[in-house]
Amino acid sequence: MSSRNIGKLVTVSNRSIIAEMYDNLGNYINTTDGIRFVGEISSYITIDDIGIKIIAEVVGVDEKTSSTYDKMSKPKSAKFIFLSLIGEILNGKFFFGVSKMPLIFSTISIITDQDLKPRFPKSVTSYFVKNPLKPVV
Q: Would you give the distance in Å from CA 58 to the centre of its chain?
């Protein structure tokens, strides 16, 4: 398991994509890009598929406790995140929309700065550096 992996897909349908987060994760994980919060609304994750990397946005978070009760046991819970598919990276280029749905039980990972480079090309970044937005007075 990579340090970026945070869970796996448990539901894949036309209406929703739901992932279950690994139970050994805390609220934060350490990656090569720094410390990242796990399951933050509006954050992005990647789903690796054969030849492509699918980009999804976290749109919801839920936690469900197990219904079993034993006198001397700790309560167990599972964390779920609801995803909206944004696009895919194919041959180093970002495309909006997804050509095929991800497979169930695919691993999901925290997105890295390297994954974001195809989405925001250098030309767009350099444009905003040369022409910063001016406040409206």
A: 6
